[in-house]
Each structure stands twice: as structure tokens, then as C-alpha cells.
Design a protein that fits this description.
The structure is a homodimer of 600-residue chains. Chain A has 600 residues and is α+β, with helices and mostly antiparallel strands. Chain A has 18 helices and 12 strands. The longest helix of chain A is centred in the middle third of the chain and has 37 residues.
């Protein structure tokens, strides 16, 4: 069977690293236990193997088509939405009140990881529906909830996030889609939305857009944006679905992520597109951010899921492909060895593993914060919320940027075969490439981290993070074999303090433009430290296990963890120093560079 | 008109940096002059614009097909081969004796750059033919030369390099295709070759394979490999072309580089495939290396050509796409600004420009060494030969690895649009990805650099390189504005000395496996220094020009050069230090990591 994830690693993270079962001591999660978590994960894997992985290649090769104004998708989509609905996978994270299982985010994260690793495009349909339905339950009226949520959680209706417009992508505050008030409880919507994932398709009965628009006369900018439910088909007085005047103008032909359509939609061409306000007027952007923050974590998760699938493909190939001999061995008559025996190939595999397992660990850490935020109160709740806020841009951007490098390295492990469609790795590179772009580009994440999260509440979140890392270092220092790593991380934290100090001074002296000019570098610098912290956390669990009794097989697993941690510290954390050098350099060339200097 | 290269930059490199016209003082190149060089470059650009760029997208969308045993390629290929033949482009670098123009490698390099930037797949057909014909003229008998070379230079017959076999890719010494001697002046060939670029197609009359095979009974390994001409159709006694028992088994469906077929060929299924020995028996690998070294430079050139096309696409897009406002500007009612005004976008553009122009400069430097090697004698000739040998793996690997990152960054500049087929950048990423694989993967280049080139003749080449850099530093120190860069480069050279010293000690103490285990990191470390050197050379020419009289437009160009140099030193050379840290780390984890630690 093709391996795209390591179940052993998932168990390691859930049980040994994050001890997710501790969540079941809280009332909200008290009906769960560890056995149930295991069952959920097993079922997710079965579904992925049965339903999703088998159509990975086909959904890529036969992408959606726009035929007579409707988008036709692969037949598997209908089946997937149905099974995800009936199996409760779309609803699993919802409260019982809304028909869900109250599954912790952490376990829900694991299932999302498995689905995305098996077939990212296929997984996007139910995941988007979950996100859209959550938004309605959080901010929508009882009427909206009753009309839309059950059908969505059932997989009968698709949910979307309809934000982007042709002239408003990264600059969301510039959207111009307009909502005209009527006296009938709905608004009339006019405008164009673009790049809407699953924005139209024939795998479901209806499409429910969670759409940002500006109520006529609302203030300019972010303060005048509201959130609406705008269905493709609305329910008429007789309970029938009738068209709601949304036209699918076109779909994009994309590099990857080809199994799901990205549609351009035009609303109100016949002045008959109706939308219903969700939450408060002019608060749409802040409402949407609930979905967007979860979506950002999901993007990071999907990136490392795709990188995971590519890594296991490369691991399998390198263990079986024979090429070359040990360097010191000159005799050409002896057999060639599996390429996994070459140090450079091991380096490439360790790189991939360090990215995949380091990123996944961070994302499950974020999920744990989300779970703890949900079930705790007061200062504790605030703490987890702040940590989650702080780490969200890292959890989004690091896996998506390094996921590109990781899948690219998987191709390199295959040599020429990796460049061919006969092996899946070229598709993984194409698929993963979207993630550094959608749900806020890496540049946007960087501005969010340095411009907002690092400074919010006078740096409270940043200080809380320092405490978390210090605790990990403290624990590690007491475990034989980890001193080097604890010390390296402590040094990196000192460097972080210096860098942020330097940047805050620059902010004061030179202003915000200079302060944020290398935000993307800061994001990478910070991410390398964050992922090292996650590796040290994993190293602690692994060393502890190695000191206990364990089988040969288990020993190999934990040794692999320790080597991968070692790899990350020596090859990847070491690069943080170079970024720090640049970040503390007073030359502001990217600010001073003039656009005309690019001309010739 | 779509811009894919900067002619201004080519003029800068040829005239101001490398002063290519000095070559015309040597007898071999004496019939040329600078005006003729200009004309050749102009004509190349016209051809690229007229013939190649217009089919860039189409050749990608309609890749070759194998129909009834023959490969059908886009109709443009026939036209291109014809015009390249008739226009003398395939032959331009050949000596007059063989029907060429004796064009310097440097100018030939510029034309190859232009062609590859306009449409890499299309350019591969004539370039491969040039390389194969060169090999015949260098080592083939007069008879072989007369039979094959004129038709190849005319564009009527395609040339190929037929090296790779299913079980012998990176490990070339393991090829098993066999040549059975006959008493009729030819050998009978039996075997399978794979990934043969332009290995079969209907755009020409005939395909001429320069093929490695083992003469029956030859020693195992590299010492038993010979070089043959093996045509698809051979000339019978009546001068007619008859089939030579080569079957096209399949063609690969590839991620990119889709305009040219990569074929799997089977020779001698009917025991009637004839091959003719080129050069000496069992010297095939060393003969082939002449072609391979040139091919490696060409791969580097093509990588930076594709990155150039992607960069100019991104530059154009960012200058026109409006999104966001200056960070300090809070008023949402003012117009959005072109994204090129954002510091992070300028950083991404500077990164691309620094890679494209830095790599191109290095490659033209290598071409100049090749030219000087050709026209000088004795110690001077040896010096240029050694420098060329040393820098070839850098000129191949750096542009191909950083070309991936550069085109990837071009996509990022486009945001979501970059992920769509409506813009060319996604194709550029797919096209450029092959270059880190073919003609020797990056890992192979790294072993070549550290395992062979750095140590050959007791490090003579490495020391010659140090002298070259010292000279540049010396010159730079006398020019105002360059002191910082000269000093940084001098410091990096000291670091290089430390790193190589450390590695040589490790070689002695721990053996070759440890010595070469991080060869790929060494290659990157060395490359960052080499490219900084090329940027300093460009900085010298630019500062000199800025001190003279120049128009506003010219000033912008030179200022852009200086800013890009500054970018490379501060953002990219700074990363060499982190690589040095790892290279001088005594932990040998990639050697010690066991393959079973990857299992779970």
C-alpha cells in the first residue's frame, strides 16, 4: 500500500508529545477518550485510502471544466462530499448543538492532515464547507443556521470563502462588491469575485458563499466591509431551490491543485442576487478572520501533508533504487547500492523529514492551544489565545514555503524519474505551490507577524512564547543527550531578543516602512527558531522513550527522531544566524531602491 | 513586445565587463569585430522573437506524441531546425574548416542565452545538434565527419547525447549497452537508452546519436566505455537512408521542458543496429566529457535564461499591478500603488535580478576562459583551462538550483495569477526544474567540485581562482564606494580557506566519505562566493561608468546594478557564513544516520 503519512508519527505526536487525552478531563471534551481518538484516526485513514488517494492522479489529469455555465468536476467529488457528510467528517469539530461530535481541534487536525496527504484537491471540498458552516454558526442568525448549516454538514451543499476580487487580493480592504439594502430582510449583491475555490461545481446541490461586500454607503476601507451568505441557489417560498443570479464567468487553469476549480463569479447581472447579512454590519472582516485564521492553519497543515506524501514517495524510491557504490569502493564489479545509503541522499531525506515532522508538530501545537483556549477561562484562556494568534502566521507560512523546498527535494531524490508524470512527486510540487499564495501570501503573513502579532498588547504574546521555549529548554537540560540542543536554542533565543530589540529601535528611528521592510526575513528567522523548539519538544519525548524499554523497531523510530532533530539544529537552525546578520544590518536597500533602477 | 532578456545587460557584460572584443586581437578570432558581434546578437534576438517565443506556450500545451513508432513534435520544430541550419546558428562556433564562423564561445553563449530565454525546449534541438557535431569533429574519423557533420550543421539531421540507461543514470560507469565488433568497419549495438532528449522526432530527416556503449569484453566500469555514432537511419551503399534498427519504446510525459521529447530507445532488437566508433576504444567517457562540460555550461546558461524570462515577466507585472498603499498611509480612499513600490516586492525582484545577472556573468566568464584557452598557449592556456574546469560545476549547479528559486519567486510576485496558465511564469518553473537533474544532478556537480576540481594538481585550479578573486578585490579597493564589498569578499575568501583546511583535515582523519558528505553544501557555499565575485566585477564596471558622464537612463541602469550587487552581498553572501558553520562542524550525522532509522 502506498504510504503518504506515518501513523506511528501521528501517535507519537498525539500521545507522547502533546498528550491530547488530557483534553478529555475538560467537560467539553469529556465524552471522548484515547481509544476513540485512535478509532477516528483509523477511520480517516481508511477513507483516505479507499476514496481519495485512488483518484489523486485522475483528478489532476482531468481538471474541472466549465460547460454551459456550470463547472463539471470529477465524479469522485460527489461521492466524497456524500461520504464526508454521512460519515460526520464535515461536522466532527462542531458542538453537539450544531450536530457535531465536539472532536478536539487536535484530532480534527490529524484527520485533515491525513485527507490532505492522500489528495489535497479532494480534501478541499469538505474542508471549505466546514469553515463556511462554522462562520454561519458563529455569527449567523438562528434562521440562517437552520437554513444552511445542516445541509452543509451533510455534504449536500458546498461552502466557500468569497473574498478576492480582481483588484482586491492582498489588499482586501479594497473590495468593491456592493450589497444594496432592501426592506425584505436581504441585500441585493452586485460584483465580481475571483479565485473562489470550489466556487461552483456539479458535485453538490448548491454552493453557499460566505462573501465579503460593502453595504451601499459604507465607509471606505476595512471598516466598511460586511459578511454575507450568498447562495448559488436560494430557497423560494415553496422550499424549492431557484437560481440566485450568480454567473460562473470562468475557471482558471492552474499549475496544480487542479482537482478543485478556482472560479470567477459575477453576482447580480440581472439585479437579482440576494445575500443575507452574517453578524454585524461593517464587521465582516473581523468575522471572516475567524474562518481565515483556521484556514491559515489548515493551509500549513495541507502543505506539510503534501510534503509528507512526497517524502514517503522519495523514501520508498531511494530505498529501492540502486545506483553507485560507497565512495571509497572503486571496484565496478560489485553490485550497486540503494541510493539511500549515500550521505547526500540521507541529507535530502532528513531535510524533508525535518520539515514535515517539524511543521506538523507546530501545527498540532497550535491545535492544542486552540483546544485549551476553548476549554479554559480567564488568564489561561487569554494565554492560549495569544500564543495561537502569534504562531498562526508561522504555522501558515513556514510549511507552505518549506513545503515547496521539501517536495522539490523529493523530486531530486528521484532524479529524472521525479520529473516525469509516472511518479507522483511532480504533482506534489505543483499542488503544494498554491499554499504560499492563498489565504494571504507569505509577505502578508510576515507583516502580520512582525507588524501586528509581535507588538500586540505590548508584546505580551511574544513574551508568552519566550516563556514556553524557556520551559522546554529547562526540561531538556535535565535529559542526557539534549544539552547541545537546549543550549543552541537558548542562544537562538538570545539572538531573537537582539534582533527584535534592533528592529524596535529602527521602528522608532526610521519608521514603519524600514521596520517592516525585511518582515519576510524575520518570519523565516523566527520560524527556524519555532521549528527548532518543536524539534526539541520531540527530542525530549524521544530521549525519554529511548531510556525506557523499547523494541528494536521502536528504537529505530526514536533514533530517527533524534537524528532528524540533530539535522534540523545543525543544518537549519544554523541558518538563522545569517538571517539575523541581515536583519540587524542598517542598510535599507529595499526601501531605498527605486523602481526606475529596474529599467534599462 | 514581451521582454525575456535585457539587451542592455548583455552589452554591459560583453563590452564593459568582459571586453570580448579583445579576443579579436588573436589570430583565430581576427576576422571578427565588435560591430559584427552586435549584429549577431541582434539577429539572434530577431529570430527568437519571430520564431521561438510565439510557440513557447503552444509547444508546452501540445507536447510530443509517439504515433506508430515515431515521435511527432510541434510543426515549429522543423522550421526552427531549418532556419537554424540555414542561418548558420548551429555551426556558428565551428572553425571555418568545418563550415563554421569561428564565433567566440562568449558570443555564442549570448546567442544561446537569448534562444533559451525565448523558448528553452525549442532551443534544445539545435543546441544538442551543435554539441553532437562538435564531438564528431573533435574525435571522429574524416569519413564520419564528412558523412554526418555537414547535414547536422545544416539542421537536416538532429544530434543527441545518448548516455543514460535505466540502471545507469548518475552512475554512468554502469552502462551495459554493448557494441559487438564486426569485420566491416562498424559495430553491432544492443541495448536500451533512456531520457534521450530529442531522441526521436519528425522535425528532421535523421537522428544522430552520440552513444556510450561497452565493446564486448571491455573492462568493467568507466575504463571499458567507448563512444559511437549510432544513427537512426544509416546511409546504404546507394546513398539512401535506411532504418538502423532503433526502436522508440516510449516518450516521457514531463513536468516541463515539454516541447522536446525525452525518449527511451531500444537498439538492435533485430540484431541490425550499426554503430561507428568515435575516437579511441575505451576512451568514450573522456571523449564524451568534452561535450558534457560544454553541455553543463549550457544547462547553467539555459537556467538563467529561463529565470531571466520569468524575472522580466514579474518586473512587468509588478510595475503595472496596483495593490495596497505605503504602510504608513492609512487613508483607504487614495489610489492603490503599483506593487513594485513595496519593499518586499523590490526584495523579490532584486533576488531574481541578482541570480539572473550574477549567473549570466559567471557563465560568460567561463566562456571567456574557454575562448582564451583556445587562443593562448603554454602556461596561460593551462591556467584558463583549469579555471574553466573548476568553475564548470558551479556554472552548472548554481543557476539551475537558484533558477528554481528565482522562477518560484517570480510566481510569488504574481500572486494567484502566477499560479495560472494565463501567465507564463508557471511554465518557467516547470521548465527550469529539469536543469538541476540532467547533465549530472547537483549532487554529482558537488562531488565533481569538492572531490575532483578542488584537489586536482594539488589544488592548482583552486589557487588560481584565489588569485583571480584577489585581483578583483585589489581593483575594487581603489574605487570609491566598493570598499565594503571588497572587504566582505576578502573575508569570505578567508572563510573559504578555513573551510577547505577543515575539510582536508577531515579527509585525512576520517576518510573520503566524511570529506564528501556535505559536498552539496560546499558547492552552495563556494557558489555564493563565486557569484559575489562576479557581482563585484560588475560593480567595478558600474561604479566606473557612474563616475563618468551618463544619461539619466544610463544612470538608472548602473544604479540598479549597484543596488543588486548590494542586495547579493547583504542578503545572499551573508548566508555563506551559516554554511561554513555547518561545514566545519565535526558531527557527521548524514554519514552515521542509518537507513533503518527512516523506518517506522
Amino acid at each position: 500500500m502506498t504510504k503518504f503519512i506515518s501513523k506511528r508519527n501521528l501517535q507519537f505526536l498525539i500521545k507522547e508529545v502533546f498528550q491530547t487525552k488530557t483534553l478529555t478531563t475538560y467537560d467539553y471534551y469529556s465524552e471522548h477518550n484515547e481509544k476513540m481518538f485512535d478509532m477516528v484516526i483509523d477511520e480517516a485513514q481508511k477513507l483516505a485510502v479507499k476514496l481519495m488517494y485512488p483518484v489523486l492522479d485522475e483528478m489532476d489529469k482531468k481538471p474541472p471544466e466549465l460547460v454551459n455555465g456550470e463547472v463539471r468536476v470529477h465524479a469522485a467529488v460527489k461521492k466524497i462530499m456524500k461520504e464526508f457528510g454521512q460519515g460526520g467528517w464535515i461536522a466532527s469539530g462542531f458542538s453537539k448543538v450544531h450536530g457535531g461530535d465536539q472532536l478536539p481541534f487536535t484530532i480534527k487536525g490529524v484527520t485533515s492532515f491525513i485527507f490532505a496527504a492522500s489528495n489535497y484537491s479532494a480534501s478541499a471540498y469538505p474542508e471549505l464547507t466546514t469553515g463556511a458552516a462554522e462562520l454561519i454558526t458563529s455569527f449567523g442568525s438562528q434562521d440562517l443556521i437552520e437554513t444552511y448549516v445542516p445541509k452543509m454538514l451533510d455534504g449536500k451543499w458546498q461552502g466557500t470563502m468569497a473574498l478576492t476580487e480582481p483588484a482586491a487580493g492582498s489588499s482586501l480592504s479594497d473590495i468593491i462588491t456592493t450589497a444594496f439594502p432592501t426592506d425584505k430582510g436581504y441585500f441585493k449583491i452586485k460584483g465580481v469575485k475571483t479565485f473562489i475555490s470550489a466556487g461552483d461545481h456539479d458535485g453538490v446541490e448548491n454552493i453557499i458563499h460566505l462573501m465579503l461586500a460593502r453595504i451601499e454607503g459604507a465607509p471606505a476601507g476595512a471598516k466598511g466591509i460586511s459578511l454575507f451568505v450568498v447562495p448559488k441557489k436560494r430557497v423560494d417560498n415553496n422550499g424549492h431551490l431557484v437560481p440566485n443570479d450568480i454567473t460562473t464567468v470562468s475557471i482558471y487553469h492552474k499549475l496544480g491543485y487542479r482537482g478543485a476549480p478556482a472560479a470567477e463569479l459575477s453576482m447580480g447581472e440581472k439585479d437579482d442576487c440576494r445575500g443575507w447579512l452574517v453578524g454585524q454590519e461593517n464587521k465582516g472582516l473581523s468575522h471572516m478572520f475567524q474562518m481565515m485564521n483556521a484556514a491559515r492553519i489548515l493551509v500549513g497543515l495541507a502543505s506539510c501533508a503534501i510534503a509528507s506524501a512526497a517524502y514517503y514517495a522519495a523514501l520508498d524510491y531511494t530505498a529501492n533504487r540502486r545506483q553507485g557504490r560507497p565512495i571509497a569502493q572503486k571496484d565496478p564489479s560489485i553490485d550497486q547500492i540503494p541510493i539511500i545509503e549515500h550521505a547526500d541522499v540521507k541529507r535530502m531525506l532528513l531535510f524533508q523529514r525535518s520539515i514535515v515532522e517539524g511543521s506538523l508538530s507546530l501545527i498540532l501545537q497550535c491545535c492544542m492551544y486552540a483546544d485549551l483556549m476553548k476549554v479554559t477561562e480567564g488568564e489561561e484562556k487569554e494565554k492560549y489565545g495569544l500564543l495561537l494568534d502569534l504562531l498562526t502566521p508561522v504555522a501558515k507560512a513556514f510549511p507552505s514555503e518549506f513545503g515547496i523546498l521539501s517536495t522539490n527535494t523529493a523530486i531530486q531524490c528521484f532524479g529524472g524519474y521525479g520529473y516525469c508524470e509516472d511518479f507522483p512527486v511532480e504533482q506534489y510540487l505543483r499542488d503544494v505551490r498554491i499554499h504560499a499564495i492563498h489565504e494571504g501570501t507569505t509577505g502578508i503573513q510576515a507583516m502580520d507577524l512582525l507588524g501586528r502579532k509581535m507588538v500586540m498588547q505590548n508584546g505580551k504574546a511574544a513574551f508568552l512564547f519566550v516563556d514556553e521555549v524557556k520551559q522546554t529548554i529547562h526540561t531538556a537540560l535535565e535529559i542526557p543527550g539534549l544539552e547541545f540542543f537546549a543550549t543552541q536554542l537558548a542562544n537562538a533565543m538570545k539572538e531573537l531578543e537582539k534582533v527584535t530589540g534592533f528592529l524596535f529601535t529602527a521602528f522608532g528611528e526610521k519608521g514603519v516602512d524600514v521596520y517592516l521592510s525585511d518582515a519576510t526575513l524575520f518570519l523565516e528567522f523566527y520560524s527556524r527558531i519555532v521549528i527548532s523548539w518543536q524539534w526539541l519538544i520531540q527530542g525530549i519525548a524521544s530521549q525519554k522513550a529511548l531510556f525506557g524499554k523499547c523494541s528494536k523497531k521502536e528504537k529505530n523510530f526514536y533514533q530517527g527522531k533524534v537524528f532528524t532533530m540533530n539535522y534540523f539544529f545543525r543544518y537549519e537552525l544554523s541558518k538563522a544566524a545569517a538571517l539575523a546578520t541581515r536583519l540587524m544590518d542598517k542598510d535599507n536597500l529595499t526601501v531605498e531602491m527605486k523602481s526606475e533602477y529596474f529599467k534599462d
